[in-house]
Design goal:
This protein is α+β, with helices and mostly antiparallel strands and about 600 residues long. Helices cover about 40% and strands about 15% of the residues. The protein has helices at about 15-25, 80-85, 100-105, 160-165, 175-180, 225, 235-255, 270-280, 300-310, 320-335, 345-355, 370-375, 375-380, 415-425, 430-455, 470-475, 490-500, 515-520, 525-535, 535-540, 545-550, 555-575, 585-594; strands spanning about 1-10, 35-40, 45-50, 60-65, 70-75, 115-125, 130-135, 145, 150-155, 195, 200-205, 210-215, 260-265, 285-290, 315-320, 360-365, 460.
Length: about 600
């Protein structure tokens, strides 16, 4: 796992060394173990490495015998199989990323078709002057692009492009509205006008500082129609096949030379993952769960510890308090440079910090199981007949907060564009909602949260439920085995009931819920003037609106958290304030600037 960046100058423009230094410094947290730099005339590649596989010999850039140069962020889980299929290639390291060099030489831009893993990669061919960028099909690993009249540049995080002076720290007001109402920015756009995401599954060819070719792997939703005939098997056979598919995915996700752990929420996904990992792990397993204190909403730590103990697995309980929230929320907002207002960033950050403190470099998580296997309530509702006409605009975070809706403009246009594209791939309404989430919510919200919270602490997140073989299997199931009117993740729950019934496979879903609403409301007198005076908030909301929203935080958490997160995020990423200090210190400084 690494941070990567690079730049290709256009004709007539020179590459400055200080830009490379700033890129490397900005990405240091993603790869604290080593860094590397390659430069060839107008082209430069930068890497900061978190060493997971081939700890001693896998430093980047990696070089092929034919002159190819590679920097990559991610893990290629089928690297051993790829190496075995290339017995004559003179590999120089044991790195899981090195097989991409001969794959690229053999298949060109189609090399990504052969990868099983999570990766954002740049490959440069000095012989042709061609730079190729590619991102995995589910968008597990991030990659961003910026272009102006002098160059084209890429990086693992937008903040690196900004800190290098390649893009100004500006804001798109329309996408601010989308963020506030939808909780993230859709498609390839970012809230920064000069930066876009490389799309999941996209491969770009760049020559002389210009994009000359684009191609994209099929979107996850296309698998509904292209998957094999899994539904023809009987129920017991399907359950057995699901177990084998998940065991295989878990095994390859545990391929590492560093220490790792598992984030255990007590829900279906992480409980099943722990049981599977116990069966295939070559090392003693360790788990982490989070506690908010006795009686707090969302605290399932006692049940999680009990379950882990029933499997003979050590599970540490990590405590998050209201004071932790107050002291660390600014640093969380600073880490999420491509913003998402999902409150789950808070416990994810705390667990990542605890993992790093224990010397863990890898964390397995259940991310993606809900989207792939049909876990959300809205998928069940989609089975019901449609009684009302489709809304012209989605219900947003602030739709029922008494805020005039015209203040946010046509904020749902991006979502509906995704919906139109996915509709062509799907036969049923549950498939459509799952496809939208896999194409949109996963890469542009949930996986950003996971990547930034963990990488801020030098920890790699791995997601066995988002393995390509798992997704293909899940998309080959009939709807009734993913979701019915009573349960989501139907077949997944059945497997957990078979393997570990003590995990309560039919308990109500909670995940890593955090009582942020109660914590905000308890300090609303202090928060209201600080949040209302923050320049980014004052540009959109009145003081009375801020007071009303924060005063209802315990009952309506999301609007309140969206306000506070955006205030902290804007203070750091737009106003340039440091994130050290608690909420009062950061927002007090922002108010003085306003």
């Amino acid at each position: 796992m690494c941070g990567i960046a690079g730049i290709m100058m256009k004709r007539g423009h020179a590459l400055r060394e200080d830009v490379l230094d700033r890129l490397r410094t900005a990405l240091h947290h993603r790869g604290p173990n080593s860094s590397g730099l390659f430069r060839d005339g107008p082209v430069a590649l930068v890497n900061t490495r978190l060493s997971i596989v081939d700890i001693e010999g896998g430093d980047q850039p990696l070089f092929g015998p034919d002159g190819l140069v590679l920097v990559a962020n991610g893990e290629i889980y089928n690297a051993p199989e790829l190496r075995a299929a290339m017995p004559g290639y003179p590999f120089r390291t044991l790195s899981d990323c090195e097989p991409m060099l001969p794959l690229y030489r053999q298949y060109g831009a189609d090399f990504a078709d052969h990868l099983r893993g999570m990766v954002a990669v740049a490959i440069y061919d000095p012989a042709t002057g061609r730079l190729t960028l590619s991102r995995d099909p589910l968008g597990i690993k991030p990659l961003y692009l910026a272009e102006d009249e002098s160059c084209i540049a890429f990086a693992s995080e937008p903040q690196a492009l900004i800190r290098a002076g390649l893009v100004p720290a500006a804001l798109d007001p329309a996408l601010r509205s989308e963020l506030l109402q939808l909780k993230h920015v859709t498609e390839e756009r970012t809230i920064f006008p000069g930066i876009r995401r490389v799309a999941p599954g996209e491969t770009l060819t760049i020559e002389h500082g210009e994009i000359t070719a684009r191609q994209r792997l099929p979107e996850p939703g296309s698998a509904w129609r292209t998957a094999g005939q899994v539904p023809r098997l009987d129920r017991p056979a399907l359950l057995e096949q699901l177990e084998q598919v998940l065991l295989d995915s878990t095994e390859v996700h545990l391929r590492m030379d560093a220490d790792g752990c598992l984030f255990l929420s007590g829900g279906v996904d992480s409980s099943l993952l722990l049981k599977l990992a116990q069966q295939v792990s070559r090392k003693p397993l360790k788990a982490l769960t989070i506690s908010y204190g006795e009686g707090q909403r969302g605290d399932e730590s006692e049940a999680a510890v009990r379950y882990a103990e029933s499997l003979g697995v050590d599970c540490a309980r990590v405590r998050m308090t209201a004071e932790d929230f107050w002291n660390h929320a600014p640093a969380v907002a600073a880490a999420i440079d491509d913003p998402t207002t999902d409150a789950a960033v808070l416990p994810t950050w705390v667990l990542a910090r605890a993992a790093a403190a224990r010397g863990e470099k890898v964390a397995l998580t259940g991310e993606g199981a809900d989207e792939v296997f049909g876990g959300y309530t809205r998928y069940r509702r989609a089975l019901l007949p449609t009684l009302f006409p489709r809304r012209k605009q989605r219900r947003g975070v602030f739709t029922e907060s008494g805020i005039p809706l015209d203040r946010f403009g046509d904020w749902s246009a991006g979502y509906f564009a995704v919906e139109r594209r996915q509709r062509a791939l799907c036969d049923t309404r549950p498939q459509l909602l799952q496809s939208i989430d896999m194409a949109e919510r996963l890469p542009n919200s949930l996986l950003i949260k996971l990547d930034r919270c963990l990488m801020a602490h030098g920890v790699e997140g791995r997601t066995p439920f988002l393995d390509r073989e798992v997704v293909r299997f899940a998309c080959g199931l009939p709807d009734r085995l993913r979701v019915d009117l009573r349960w989501g993740k139907v077949l997944l729950r059945e497997l957990l009931a078979k393997l570990a019934p003590q995990a309560r496979p039919y308990a109500r879903k909670r995940g890593f819920g955090v009582p942020a609403g109660r914590w905000m409301q308890d300090r609303q007198r202090e928060l209201v003037p600080l949040v209302a005076a923050q320049p980014g908030i004052a540009a959109v909301f009145t003081r009375d609106e801020v007071a009303r929203i924060l005063g209802q935080a315990a009952e309506q958490e999301q609007p309140a958290w969206s306000l506070l997160f955006y205030a902290l995020w804007h203070s750091h990423h737009l106003l340039g304030l440091r994130s050290e200090g608690d909420i009062a210190a950061v927002l007090g400084s922002a108010a003085r600037l306003g």
